């Protein structure tokens, strides 16, 4: 799974309009949809192709856009230093519907959903080992749920397509579905997946595929996002207790080891988007994308530095000086001006935008913090504090408990967990969605804009509730009259 197969699936049948039958219109280098779903080998290729769409969604050198643009750049963690290609529009909350990054992400997400729908719809008719077939379907449901979860957090209610589409008219018949119905489908897909997916994979080529634990962790996060704290606690509770569950997740002794390219899929990683460098077209672009421009550093000599996702000073300052995670997470360039960058994606690229760093979607520390948050919302600090302290103690290499003031009330612990999530999970694609989920985005970001006098032209940036969702891409609105725009 580390090296996604380079495969294209033909979804449209090609017909010749010529009277003579000497012109072959079927590309011999491509596999038709009908041929793909004939046997177990073809179905495996289709599932691998569905995994391959995650690189498009989370970031691919040829695509120029990834989840970081929606999850970190709008937050107080990050800045898109460049103004080209509409990246900085998301930072200043002036994103127009014609912003190309919106269309690219929409297309990539629905490409993933389309491939998953084809697998889920066609696999049952394939004559093959039933257990393996059911596992492939469960993997597709996990990937479909993940794609819809990303979509609903970016745009709110979106068209809910759960079957393979064969005509343009079919595609244009869909309007935006309610958020409740989209979440219901996400929940159902993950419930179906968790009952079928294996706890672990024994074949090395299968490592990196979705597991039962990944489905449970994602379902817990969905419940937390919906404010279903009781269901979140119950689901994540299946992963939390050490020694009494089969999943084997744990915090690594050293925070830095989590992100090493020589230690991928370690016991803290629950699910990650896999990348492999070396000219295969499957390398990760984050190293080059995230370094600040014009730093003069030799570290960026292969492919240069783009400044797409540069750490803000506010994140650097949020760490207590004694917190070792700051030096592990953030590097500092000192030149004509000071520039910060994330060290979580440091690697030596084989070529430009061709590094080995995986994108971690879910890890055990996130599960512990989500569990603590749900427990605090349900019952207050008493049963939640130990999970936060476990993460802090790992970071500091010894006891590092929250203060009495931080744990005295539900409200104080809520803010402490918010801060701990920001520090622990910095630049991993959580911050903006955390702020929106907890209804803290407006207050936190407006205070941030005022503190640093961040301006769009002469005016300090300010946001309101209308900025919690991004615009539906203009092209989608233009071609589908059933779609409505966000405020």
General description of the model:
The protein has helices spanning 33-36, 40-58, 68-71, 87-92, 100-122, 130-155, 168-171, 179-196, 212-226, 229-237, 286-290, 313-318, 324-329, 364-379, 385-396, 410-424, 431-437, 441-452, 474-479; strands spanning 9-10, 31-32, 78-79, 269-273, 310-311, 330-334, 338-342, 359-363, 455-456, 459-460. The protein has 487 residues and is mainly alpha-helical. It has a domain at 31-197 and 439-487: Serine Threonine Protein Phosphatase 5, Tetratricopeptide repeat (Alpha Horseshoe). A two-stranded parallel ribbon has the order 1-2. A two-stranded antiparallel sheet has the order 3-5. Strands 4-8 form a two-stranded antiparallel ribbon. A hairpin with a 3-residue loop joins β6 and β7. The protein is globular, with a radius of gyration of 23 Å. The two termini are 41 Å apart. The relative contact order is 0.12. The model is unreliable at 3-24 (pLDDT under 50).
Portion of residues within helices: 40-55%
Strand content: 5-15%
CATH architectural name of the domain at 31-197 and 439-487: Alpha Horseshoe
CATH structural fold name of the domain at 31-197 and 439-487:
Serine Threonine Protein Phosphatase 5, Tetratricopeptide repeat
Alpha-carbon distance between the termini? 41 Å
Question: Averaging pLDDT over every residue, what do you get?
Answer: 91
What's the CATH class of the domain at 31-197 and 439-487, please? Mainly Alpha
* Strand count: 10
Give the count of helical stretches: 19
Give a short account of the largest sheet.
Answer: 2 strands, parallel
Q: From the helix content, strand content and strand pairing, which structural class follows?
A: mainly alpha
Order of helices and strands: EEHHHEHHHHHHHEHEHHEEEHHHHHEEH
Low-confidence stretches: 3-24
Shape: globular
What would you report as the Rg, rounded to the nearest angstrom?
Answer: 23 Å
Major sheet strand order: 1-2
């Amino acid at each position: 799974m580390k090296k996604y197969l380079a495969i294209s699936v033909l979804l449209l049948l090609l017909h010749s309009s010529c009277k003579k039958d000497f012109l072959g219109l079927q590309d011999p280098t491509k596999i038709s949809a009908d041929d793909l779903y004939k046997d177990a080998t073809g179905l495996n290729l289709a599932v691998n192709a569905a995994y391959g769409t995650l690189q498009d969604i989370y970031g691919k050198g040829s695509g120029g856009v990834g989840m970081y643009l929606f999850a970190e750049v709008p937050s107080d963690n990050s800045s898109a230093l460049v103004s080209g290609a509409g990246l900085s529009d998301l930072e200043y909350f002036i994103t127009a519907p014609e912003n190309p990054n919106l269309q690219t992400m929409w297309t990539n997400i629905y490409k993933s959903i389309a491939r998953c729908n084809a697998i889920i719809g066609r696999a049952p008719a394939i004559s093959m080992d039933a257990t393996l077939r059911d596992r492939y379907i469960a993997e597709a449901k996990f990937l479909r749920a993940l794609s819809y979860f990303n979509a609903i957090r970016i745009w709110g209610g979106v068209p809910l397509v759960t079957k393979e589409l064969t005509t343009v008219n079919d595609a244009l018949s869909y309007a935006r579905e309610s958020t409740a119905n989209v979440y219901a489908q996400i929940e159902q897909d993950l419930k179906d997946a968790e009952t079928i997916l294996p706890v672990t994979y024994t074949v090395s080529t299968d490592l990196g595929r979705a597991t039962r634990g990944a489905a449970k962790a994602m379902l817990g996060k969905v419940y937390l996002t919906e404010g279903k704290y009781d269901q979140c606690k119950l689901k994540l509770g299946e992963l939390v207790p050490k020694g009494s569950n089969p999943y084997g997740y744990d915090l690594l002794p050293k925070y830095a080891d989590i992100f090493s390219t020589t230690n991928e899929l370690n016991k803290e990683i629950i699910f990650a988007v896999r990348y492999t460098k070396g000219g295969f077209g499957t390398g990760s672009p984050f190293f080059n994308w995230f370094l600040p421009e014009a730093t003069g550093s030799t570290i960026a000599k292969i492919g240069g530095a783009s400044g797409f996702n540069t750490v803000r000073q506010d994140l650097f300052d949020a760490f207590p000086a004694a917190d070792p995670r700051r030096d592990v997470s953030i590097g500092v360039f000192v030149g004509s001006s000071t520039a910060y960058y994330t060290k979580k994606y440091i690697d030596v690229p084989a070529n430009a935008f061709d590094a080995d760093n995986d994108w971690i979607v879910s890890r055990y520390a996130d599960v512990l913090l989500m569990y603590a948050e749900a427990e605090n919302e349900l019952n207050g600090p008493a049963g939640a504090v130990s999970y936060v302290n476990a993460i802090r103690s790992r970071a500091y290499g010894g006891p590092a408990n929250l203060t009495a003031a931080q744990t005295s009330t539900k409200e104080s612990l809520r803010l402490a967990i918010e801060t701990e999530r920001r520090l622990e999970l910095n630049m991993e694609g959580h911050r903006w969605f955390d702020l929106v989920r907890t209804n803290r985005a407006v207050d936190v970001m407006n205070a941030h804009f005022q503190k640093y006098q961040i301006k769009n032209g002469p005016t300090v940036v300010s946001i309101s509730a209308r900025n919690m969702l991004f615009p539906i891409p203009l092209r989608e609105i233009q071609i589908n009259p059933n779609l409505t725009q966000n405020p």
